[in-house]
Amino acid sequence: MTAHTPQPAPPIGLLVELTHRCPLGCPYCSNPLALERPGGELDGETWKRVFSEAAALGALHVHLSGGEPTARRDIVDLTGHASKSGLYTNLITSGIGVGEKLTGDLADAGLDHAQLSFQGADKETNDRLGHYAGSWERKRAFAGYVIKAGLPLTVNAVIHRANLHQVPAFIELAVELGARRLEIAHTQYYGWALANRAELMPPRKQVEESITLVEAARARLKGELVIDMVVPDYYARYPKPCAGGWGRIAINVSPTGKALPCHAAESIQGLEFWNVREHSLADIWHTNPAFNAFRGVEWMREPCRSCERREIDWGGCRCQALALTGDARNADPACHKSPDHERIVATALAESESGDGALRFRSYKEKVEA
Ligand code: SF4
Ligand code: FES
């Protein structure tokens, strides 16, 4: 890996996986296959130090995520500290187990925004794909508590073959719940989603229809609802600037304190990820070789090295390049310039018409080695 020496600009945001505990079992979960156990989670004081260090480093916001972040009993205290440190605080939650009192306490502690996931746009689909009976009612109730507490609400919908037909219903749901923003994000295929790719990959035609639908809804709901859409990159011409570029704008911290340039970074062998227990966030950001491994453009090979988009998408996703080509330094094969692009699109198209419908749900009890 090529080292990169210039001082990086400060990160914009911090995403903390406070715990991998989660009541849901989504088959596209972005947490690693080998989930971290509660006994190893950072204590509250360490998380608070990390928040203070992030603010001092120049970060503007923190995403309180998981797993289910409210499974932490100290979530109000942690939110309060992050807010007092000067960070904009965003809770990314399933909404399960978050009652009216807890929502109010979080708002009082300084929570700025709540992002609520839905697995489907009706009860049957939502509860089946989240692998949790009764989650539909609980999520809807939580949305009401958020609005009552005066917090802005974003609805998150991760879409794939099993729920892509519900895009119009997700838009209606977001409007009905009073959300200001709807994020329709196609599944990204690593971790659990890669294990389920044959069941989740949608046909290209269905994806194109959903894009048209969203564009029409954006025009119709202008001023009422903002709709963000992330399309499946296997069908795109160019890859996404994953994580905003490796080591450029964000730091992820796992439940046990590993600082990562993106949530799937541990899938890349040979990188040593420093832990916030032993290193300050500033030390990690500036000097951990893992953060420098793919920072900037010096590490790139062709076709990225001489590409006019190399500082736009930063070569796409390192973890996807590794998973699909066997080498994280290759161009993300979602890019049409990658020599592997045709092969992976052909695979995607074949998979979109295959699969036996049997999803492998994420299980916190199942101990799976990555
Ligand atoms: Fe991005 Fe590399 Fe493709 Fe250029 S060749 S568009 S830098 S992934
Ligand atoms: Fe790791 Fe994209 S998920 S770089």
Please give a structural write-up.
This protein is of the alpha/beta class. It is 33% helix and 12% strand. It contains 13 helices and 9 strands. It has helices spanning 44-57, 75-84, 100-109, 123-130, 135-148, 167-177, 192-195, 197-200, 204-220, 281-287, 289-292, 318-325, 341-351; strands spanning 13-17, 61-65, 88-93, 113-118, 153-159, 181-186, 226-230, 250-253, 259-260. It has a 9-stranded mixed β-sheet. Helix 1 packs parallel to helix 2 (75-84) and helix 2 (75-84) packs parallel to helix 3 (100-109). Residues 366-370 have low confidence and may be disordered. Iron/sulfur cluster binds next to loops. The site of FE2/S2 (inorganic) cluster (FES) has 11 residues, from helix 12.
Mean pLDDT: 92
Which strand-content bin applies to the residues?
5-15%
The radius of gyration over CA amounts to: 20 Å
Biggest sheet: strand arrangement: 7-6-5-4-3-2-1-8-9
What can be said about the biggest beta sheet?
Answer: 9 strands, mixed
| Anisotropy-based shape | globular
State the share of residues found in helices, binned by percent: 25-40%
- Poorly predicted regions are 366-370
Bound molecules: iron/sulfur cluster, FE2/S2 (inorganic) cluster
**Structural class assignment:** alpha/beta
Give the helices and strands as they follow along the chain.
Answer: EHEHEHEHHEHEHHHEEEHHHH
Distance between the termini: 22 Å
Number of strands: 9
- Helix tally equals 13
